[in-house]
Amino acid sequence: MKIAVAGTGYVGLVAGVCFAEVGHMVTCVDVDENKIQLLKSGVSPIYEADLERLMRKNYDEGRIDYTMDYREAYRNADAIFIGVGTPERPDGSANLTYIAAVARQIAESIEKECLVVVKSTVPIGTNDKVEQFINDFLVNDVHVEVASNPEFLAQGSAVRDTLQAARIIIGTESDWAKEMLMKIYEPFHLPIVAVKRRSAEMIKYASNDFLALKISYMNDIANLCELVGADIGEVAQGMSFDSRIGSRFLNAGIGYGGSCFPKDTKALEYLAKQHGYELRTVKAAIDVNKEQKVILYKKACKRLITFHGLKVAVLGLTFKPGTDDLREAPSLDNIPLLLENGADIFAYDPVGTDNFKKLYPEGRNGRGSITYVERPEEALENANLCFIFTEWGSIAALKPYIYQKFMKTPLVYDGRNIYDVNEMRKAGIEYHSIGRRQSF
Ligand code: NAD
User: Fold this and answer.
1) Prediction pTM value
2) Number of alpha carbons in the 13 Å side-chain half-sphere of residue 4
3) Structural domain tally of the chain?
4) Active-site residue identified among 114, 260, 301, 386
5) Any transmembrane segments, and where (predicted)?
6) Whether residue 404 sits in one domain with residue 369
7) Does the ipTM exceed 0.90?
8) Residues 114 and 257 in one domain
């Protein structure tokens, strides 16, 4: 089939490449000229395992191309997938400006019957409006319908998550749209759940918000564990054997980040409010997460008189390992606080440094300063304290003695519970983590 994809971010690009990989003819469209140039030269603008290899393979075999010329890409496409951003507005609602812009471009361009498929996460009912909007602005008299096909990939494993997805959700209002989507996904050989369009939109939010709730719940229990002398690692292990609970998303830490959970929890809470309903569970998840992100900073404030003039090692900047994405990363909550309070930060991240530098250029910043280093040991050298914000393999691989050997005073705040508390104690490190017995 001839497929166009609007947006070459995490969702659009990975979808486009995977559609090409299973044999469809794909044109990816973006408004960002730099991205299109990079993509044409075989370089992925985002970091995802296996993505570049598949991009190059499918480009060389003629199944994928990249363009800014949306008219040409949409003109005679059988299906157009929309994967543009739906970021959070200051009031928590989803910003649908980019969706509306693509809808208008589609209406101006299509010259034959076409299925428009919204992959972006949009509030329930949005796709009804997108269909109406496109039909209102159609230039040519052609049949067009809108389907919902929410995306469930996780950054860091996006290609694998797409090619081996647990399920594909398709939300349609007609047999024609349903059959079109079934045909597009047939070569993936994955379970397909076909539902109505509004249910599909809700499945996405309900799934993301459930996972956010699970994380916040474990963080809440972890905070209580500290107060009552239980250990969240042992608690989670014990819970994980119950198949009704499952073993994933039970790790306590400094809260969830990324481009999805924070905005999707707020958007659903906002939507509920619009309908006069208070979504108390999701609100609780949001509140817990907000406080969790700075919980270690607060612990450090209690322990130290000042951060001024202290060398602070920061290990990990991205919101999770395997991605260069910084959106809503806990580092973005903590680093400004440390800088405001005069810390001299030495930050290490295997892939996120370039993006972080754009927000916090190297050098003096307010009362403090920030320096980016290539190796974790450089960050630790002579440091007075260390914060661990991301559990990258290269950080988790550091043995406890490394902190003792390199740091001036081995005081470690671990937001990802990477280390065994007893081993850190044995190595002579003052180790603070989340929900576990403190070593000192
Ligand atoms: P992103 O910000 O990485 O990418 C969006 C892209 O769309 C950008 O490259 C932008 O230049 C482009 N764009 C904007 N306007 C355009 C237009 N008119 N035509 C063509 N391209 C245009 O976004 P993302 O992280 O891929 O997320 C996209 C959507 O998918 C969001 O709704 C998000 O909630 C959802 N989602 C994201 C993930 C994830 O892990 N990132 C997972 C599931 C769902």
Assistant:
1) 0.94
2) 24
3) 3
4) 260
5) none
6) yes
7) yes
8) no
